[in-house]
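Reminder to self: tokens first, then the designed residues, so the page reads top to bottom the way the pipeline ran.
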């Protein structure tokens, strides 16, 4: 039924069509107080994501108008494989820089703000040049390098989300800087607490929570730092409903940059192996973000994050309903539920001849049944070394597609 005053219409989610613009969700039978500035339905996967969250939405009655273009456009590239090495080199160099910054802070030495700003700008350039490659690199986890890699992953994911939200080039660079330095306060946490393999005691958890205050103080005392970075370091564990820390601030007190970093920080932490817990699969992390909408996380930003990262990102291991296992090597831009998958294990979970499936086309197994993804699984659970596939260029190689 149309609402003339607000120019919106309430519809069931099964009435959604590509091209519509959602401006409000109804979650848990109640209309949310949160208004999206806009969330455009671009693919069938977007529709399925909304259908998994709620039953009714409000759409903009003017949804047929041309969508607002993003302020920053992705650069034309010569292809994934051709630019991958440069992107990987930037990722490696930035990760090393962040490790050195954390070491300098831990030792009481000054760090180069200029170098971090330049690294953030480089990350923006590489995301614009080859967002698929940068996203792939965030999926290759290393537990022994968690702190530095986490900061880098949060930077890349934040830039991807910022690009999806239509931020300007300057804002993307500032957001990247904020994300790179969001956990700098952990350099002041005693290593026996930071690296403790078991559950933290209450007093230890209280000390760990102080990394947000330490981060703000470090960044406020340094020369040439932008205030946004200190705000994000201080506020990236705050929740919209005021249940976060260190101050219990509510949504109206949180900056857009803080809300963005909070989402991608949680996603990378959930999916990464750490000294005290195993990482969880990608779709589990998305489910946690969705369940935290309106309480912990900005709902509009969560939906845009799902849209930009996809349901089956490159580098994830998927198990088909017939038991075979493969690695997602390329997303399908037109249908995010049907990626290209490199089969590596048979139904008994033993090594199988590698072959590529393009799920956008009909592909059948040896029993004549269509291939369907059952779930995303952890590489460690099947003793799969994703680094080997990365170094052997399995993500960039050309394969004959089998049916």
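Designed residues (403 positions):
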């Amino acid at each position: 039924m149309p609402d003339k005053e607000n120019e919106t219409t309430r519809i069931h989610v099964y009435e959604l069509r590509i091209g519509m613009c959602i401006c409000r969700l109804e979650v848990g039978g109640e209309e949310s107080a949160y208004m999206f500035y806009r969330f455009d339905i671009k693919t069938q996967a977007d529709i399925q994501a909304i259908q998994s969250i709620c039953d009714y939405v409000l759409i903009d009655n003017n949804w047929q108008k041309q969508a607002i273009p993003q302020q920053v456009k992705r650069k034309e590239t010569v292809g994934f494989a051709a630019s991958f090495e440069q992107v990987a080199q930037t990722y490696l160099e930035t990760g090393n820089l962040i490790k050195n910054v954390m070491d300098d802070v831990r030792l009481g030495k000054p760090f180069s703000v200029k170098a971090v700003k330049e690294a953030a700008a480089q990350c923006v350039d590489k995301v614009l040049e080859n967002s698929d490659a940068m996203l792939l690199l965030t999926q290759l986890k290393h537990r022994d390098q968690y702190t530095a890699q986490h900061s880098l992953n949060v930077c890349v994911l934040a830039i991807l989300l910022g690009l999806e939200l239509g931020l300007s080039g300057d804002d993307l660079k500032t957001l990247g800087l904020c994300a790179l330095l969001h956990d700098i306060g952990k350099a002041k946490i005693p290593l026996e607490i930071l690296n403790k393999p078991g559950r933290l005691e209450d007093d230890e958890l209280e000390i760990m929570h102080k990394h947000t205050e330490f981060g703000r103080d470090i960044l406020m005392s340094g020369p040439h730092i932008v205030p946004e970075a200190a705000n994000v370091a201080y506020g990236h564990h705050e929740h919209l409903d005021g249940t976060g820390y260190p101050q219990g601030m509510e949504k109206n007190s949180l900056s857009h940059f803080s809300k963005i970093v909070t989402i991608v920080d949680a996603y990378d932490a959930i999916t990464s192996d750490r000294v005290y817990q195993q990482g969880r699969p990608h779709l589990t992390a998305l489910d946690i973000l969705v369940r935290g909408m309106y309480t912990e996380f900005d709902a509009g930003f969560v939906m845009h994050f799902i849209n930009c990262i996809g349901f089956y990102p490159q580098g994830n291991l998927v198990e088909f309903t017939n038991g075979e296992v493969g690695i997602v090597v390329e997303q399908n831009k037109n249908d995010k539920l049907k990626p290209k998958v490199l089969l590596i294990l048979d139904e008994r979970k033993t090594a199988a001849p590698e072959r590529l499936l393009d799920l956008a086309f009909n592909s059948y197994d040896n029993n004549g049944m269509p291939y369907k993804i059952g779930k995303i699984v952890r590489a460690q659970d099947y003793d799969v070394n994703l680094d080997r596939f990365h170094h052997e260029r399995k993500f960039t190689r050309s394969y004959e597609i089998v049916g």
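The chain has three domains: 2-60, 80-309, 317-402.
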